[in-house]
Every structure is written in C-alpha cells, then in structure tokens.
C-alpha cells in the first residue's frame, strides 16, 4: 500500500489538481476512485469524516482536500511530510 492515498473521482477538478500537485512533487500515491464503488466511498467517509472528494492521506495523517494540501505546500510543510515517507 502506498503511504499517500487519494480518494477521488475522475473528473473532479480538485482531484485533478491534487494529482497534479503530487506528480509535480514526484510523490508516489495510490488513487482510489470512488465513483460506482460504495465500499470505497464508505471507507473514505469513515476514515475522513467527510463526503467530498478528494480526500488525501499522507501516512496515517488526514490532510483533507486539495485546498488544505495546497496550503501546506505554500507554507513549506508538504515536502517534509512527503519526505518523511522515504525514511519509513
């Protein structure tokens, strides 16, 4: 299992933006597409407490959606979180 997990739908613009940001960072992530997948939607809702996509997890930490991840990036806090995965 990847240490970065994204719950997404294919055409959600925030999901596209989240994938793009992680790809620019060179992060390896697991994408879990929830459309048509009641089991994955339920898993996402239980883990995050939210119903919207994307929902992003880095390790055991729930980051939130794209806006929260972008804020971490602007503050310089995203790279250390992603870098901590390499040490695991």
From TrEMBL:
GO molecular function: glutathione disulfide oxidoreductase activity
Domain annotation Glutaredoxin: ranges: 4-63
Stored PROSITE patterns: GLUTAREDOXIN_1, GLUTAREDOXIN_2
Entry GO terms, CC: cytoplasm
UniProt keyword annotation of Electron transport present: yes
InterPro entries registered for this protein in UniProt: GLR_AS (IPR011767), Glutaredoxin (IPR002109), Glutaredoxin_subgr (IPR014025), GRX_bact (IPR011900), Thioredoxin-like_sf (IPR036249)
PANTHER family in the record: GLUTAREDOXIN 2, GLUTAREDOXIN-1-RELATED
Family named by the database record: Belongs to the glutaredoxin family.
Protein name: Glutaredoxin
């Amino acid at each position: 299992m990847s240490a970065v997990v994204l719950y997404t739908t294919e055409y959600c613009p925030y999901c596209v933006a989240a994938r793009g940001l992680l790809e620019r960072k060179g992060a390896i992530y697991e994408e879990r597409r929830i459309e048509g997948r009641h089991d994955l939607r339920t898993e996402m809702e239980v883990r995050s407490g939210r119903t919207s996509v994307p929902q992003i997890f880095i390790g055991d930490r729930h980051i939130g959606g794209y806006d929260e991840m972008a804020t971490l990036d602007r503050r310089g806090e995203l790279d250390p979180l992603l870098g901590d995965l390499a040490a695991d």
